[in-house]
Write the structure tokens for this entry.
Amino acid sequence: MSECVFCQIVAGTVPSQKVLDTERVLVFHDIRPQAPVHVLVIPKQHIASAHALQAEHATVLMDMHLAAQQAAEQLGIAQDGYRLVTNVGWHGQQTVPHLHYHLLGGRQLQWPPG
Amino acid sequence: MSECVFCQIVAGTVPSQKVLDTERVLVFHDIRPQAPVHVLVIPKQHIASAHALQAEHATVLMDMHLAAQQAAEQLGIAQDGYRLVTNVGWHGQQTVPHLHYHLLGGRQLQWPPG
């Protein structure tokens, strides 16, 4: 069994509050939300981070962005706007070594982004 | 002539401090850097935002991420890590209506991301 918690969420052995479940992508609520809407968009396949993406991942990367759009519509933040963030490594504060995009909205986001 | 400043940067009619120039993607320094390394990764074709991405953009979206990886290596932040951010609309603080990923690194990035 995978030791990756996001792989376990994909497998259903760790619970999550799901928003969207597509062929290649899962969207679920962040357990430590930083905004009124804060969900994670992850590929079902294990990819370590944005720095590990390769050309062969073009379809799943695109699907992640389409799922983010759909989640933004579904959660009512598409019109006012939102932010997509992915962290790589220590300086980025990446906490789970499985690629994930944070989708944040429902409030005015500030600058700089952390 | 396009009124979009990023299209003008692609066309070379507005100057920029370029980091990478590939077939479909340009990477250049942000004029208001928020970190020791802060560059923008943009598609050469005009796409309004991440919310305007469509399935046909899979290749250029992938190329943007590969260019971000290459820029991170080139600018010496790949090992310590970095953050990729894209803003959509008002709440995201999107300032230029041409898709762009902010690549930030060279310092500890904070949480929340804005």
Observations:
- The radius of gyration of chain A is 14 Å.
